[in-house]
Write a structure and sequence with these properties.
By secondary structure, the protein is an alpha/beta fold. The protein contains eight helices and ten strands.
Length: 258
């Protein structure tokens, strides 16, 4: 796992955007895995600016989102479909995008079809991830199988509380989601994880330097062949080897830089 420490959230987004730019220049019809929440908003703003400036072209890409709330229609303002339209899909041209249907009547069939669609697209080239304060990725809560596939999950009280700021009251936060599984995420050719803020420091340390365990689902990415974690100084504050990670990044050969 490559750990990149930047000074602040804006610099994290800038570095992540450079990785997306490299991916799209190497493969114009890339399959991208996308995330929601506050973490990727700055990155999406940068991607939009880069697309409008002609630095990148998203018009040939296929995208798959990590998850969606069960019970919310795609038109609900707090659905992840609405989030993606606001922050990306209504602002740039994307060839094909996929988000689980939160109103699907047959959830098991929806999940199986989502897995099949990813396979038919050739697999995910670059998977964007946020990191939950308890170490979850997607909505794979602590205790999730490290080999899990797209499925229904019940959110923990902690995750419900973390997401309550997006709703009028905690009681409005859905308790169930459809999410890509840990195994689905792990199948991506490159996993890109972003985290910033002191509140993520414990999760970052557990993900990078703790044991690989289902209690910290993100820790499985220690075993991923190509995983990049980009964090700000606050999120990196719990890392024992943070000086080493800085040294490695500062001494990367030019051809490895995004």
């Amino acid at each position: 796992m490559e750990v990149i420490i930047k000074s602040n959230a804006d610099e994290v987004s800038r570095e992540a955007a450079a990785i997306f730019r490299r991916q799209l220049r190497e493969k114009t019809d890339s399959v991208l895995g996308l995330a929601t929440g506050s973490t990727p908003v700055g990155l999406y703003d940068r991607l939009v600016m880069m697309a409008r400036a002609g630095e990148i072209d998203l018009s040939h890409t296929t995208t798959f989102n990590l998850d969606e709330y069960v019970g919310l229609s795609s038109s609900h303002p707090q659905s992840y479909a609405a989030f993606m339209r606001r922050h990306l899909f209504d602002r740039v041209s994307v060839a094909r995008w996929h988000i689980p249907d939160g109103k699907a009547r047959d959830i098991p069939r929806l999940c199986a079809d989502y897995e099949e669609a990813i396979l038919e697209a050739g697999g995910i080239d670059l998977q964007l991830l946020g990191l939950g304060s308890d170490g979850h990725i997607g909505f794979n809560e602590p205790g999730s199988s490290l080999g899990s596939r797209t499925r229904l999950k019940t959110l923990t009280a902690r995750t419900v509380a973390d997401n309550a700021r997006y709703f009028a009251s905690p009681g409005e936060v859905p308790r169930h989601v459809v999410t890509m599984g840990v195994g689905t995420i792990f199948d991506a050719r490159h996993c890109l994880v972003l985290a910033f803020g002191e509140g993520k420091a414990g999760a970052v340390a557990a993900m990078v330097e703790g044991p690989v365990t289902a209690m910290v689902p993100a820790s499985v990415l220690q075993m991923h062949p190509v995983c990049t974690l980009i964090v700000d100084e606050a999120a990196a504050s719990g890392l024992e080897r943070r000086d080493y990670y800085r040294w490695v990044y500062e001494n990367k050969p030019a051809w490895q830089r995004a």
